[in-house]
Design a protein that fits this description.
It comes from Bifidobacterium callitrichos DSM 23973. This is Chromate reductase/NADPH-dependent FMN reductase/Oxygen-insensitive NADPH nitroreductase. The chain is 40% helix and 11% strand. It is built from eight helices and four strands, in the order αααβαβααβαβα. The protein has a four-stranded antiparallel β-sheet with strand order 1-2-4-3, with helices on both faces. The longest helix is centred in the middle third of the chain and has 24 residues. The radius of gyration is 20 Å and the shape is globular.
Length: 245
Amino acid sequence: MTTHSDDVAAVNETVATLLNRRSIRKFKADPIDDDTRAVLETVAQHAASSQYLNDWSAIRISDPSIKAKFAEIGHQPYIAEAPLLYLFILDEQRNARIAERKGVDTSSPDWGLASSYRFTQAQNDAVLALHAMETAAYSLGLGCVILGSLLNDIPELIELCHLPKYTYPVLGLAIGKPDQEPALKPRMPRTMQFFENQYPTADDAAMLDGLEEFDGTVHQYYDLRNTDRPATPSATRSPRSAPRT
């Protein structure tokens, strides 16, 4: 049976790649060659950047001992086996250096790049860059998993990667040649995430019925994937235990 997703995927290869996106947690041991790595990193640099401040960076983790530490922090052994591993960070350190060379007192509360607004914008920029790299990797036949679990121990990340003032960890990204083909996670109907002009009221019948139906779909997905463990409703999982999809 042809589905709406099938019709959308037929538009072009980019759309098909995005609709086929899934987290890969088992990689082949094959290394990622330098040319491919350069393509991925260049694509990340071409993501949108708020006010063109380029306020993100990425630490490429190649040291096996640091990889092992990352795996320990994330409680996910496969992190240590990833052929290519990055920690994306928000980075105002570079801009602080530029400002200081121009005579700006970066310790002053008037220095705008130390504001909470810039923190969130830099964080957004790092996520956009990571997603651009992830999409490029999938388009090249590679697999990825986004690592929010690394934020379990931010002080340890800062120490391991020698992150200076005005930087902060955002997310990790593991990349490699897939050695598994997990089922696609179900997505809720678009009508439950895209609203016209206003957010629906809490007692919206269509929304309530849709949520109940989707909860059943998610339960079925996890029951089939983990036959030895019953599903936990997604809304009741703690933020750190909820997997990135």
